[in-house]
Amino acid sequence: MRQAAEEVEVPSASPNLAVKVSTSFPSSEIFGIKLVNGHPTQALLSFTNDEPEAVNVVFIGGSLWTSGYTDQPSRVVRNLTTTRYNVEIPAGQKDSISYSFVTDLHPQDLKLNLAAVITDNEGAAYTLQALNETVSIVEPDASIFDPQIIFLYFFLLAAFCGTCYFIYSTWITTFFPQKKRGGKGGERAKRSSGRSTKVDPADQVSVIGADGPAVTSGAKAYDESWIPAGHINRPEARRVKSGPRPKSRSKPE
């Protein structure tokens, strides 16, 4: 009796059940089923219950297998997520259930095996194979607005700018002479005194001296900021009245 009970609980791989199931992929292409890494793949399982009693869809799951085209036997590459539904399909009715899964594998061709576990009105479990076809694992299309791509662009740009600056500061600057900074006060005075300043004719004053006439201007042609104040504001010399010189006495011969 115990052995018979265990046989009832194990899903039957070849059930004597009038239930049909087919699988379609709404987002699949004409050239075949492609599973994009990192993106959910939606499979639509359509059930047709030709039984006189209602059946219950309990689980839907699947696995990915090697194609088996080589001499090596097929082996399981990845087991997909098993999802619990508990959807009841009345007698003589049809119903569709969506099953989604995500892959993260190297691009290759594999066999996709999908199966559904259903129970009848007596609680006996059966396994129905929903799909067994070859699919292609592909990588998602690259986009320039992908955050990882944008971060990579910024990183490469920063590395390129840092390398250019290092080359410029290490080798290129040695070929160009550096400009000397401003020297001491005497050098600044020479540079300031060497500058020419236009003078208004109204400010010119003619001066007659021993060397001939000269022209001076009221505008200052030099910078007084570096000259000490004691040298600029000199005290005026006082004039002392001189009396008649005393006559020199002649010595007696």
Question: Mind explaining what this structure looks like?
Answer:
There is one protein chain. The chain is α+β, with helices and mostly antiparallel strands and 253 residues long. Helix content is 18%, strand content 34%. The protein contains four helices and eleven strands. It has helices at 2-9, 147-170, 185-194, 229-232; strands at residues 19-24, 34-36, 41-49, 55-66, 76-79, 83-89, 94-101, 108-119, 125-138, 204-209, 212-217. The strands form three sheets. Strands 2, 4, 5, 6, 8 and 9 form a six-stranded mixed β-sheet that branches. The longest helix is centred in the middle third of the chain and has 24 residues, at 147-170. It is rod-shaped and about 145 Å long.
Task: Summarize, please.
With about 250 residues, the chain is an alpha+beta fold. The protein is about 20% helix and about 35% strand.
Distance between the termini: 180 Å
Label the structural class: alpha+beta
Sheet-strand content, in percent, reads 25-35%
Rough outline: rod-shaped
The SSE string, one letter per element, is: HEEEEEEEEEHHEEH
Q: Report the average pLDDT across residues.
A: 76
Please summarize the sheet with the most strands. Answer: 6 strands, mixed
In terms of per-residue confidence, which ranges show pLDDT below 50 for 5 or more consecutive residues? 1-14, 207-212
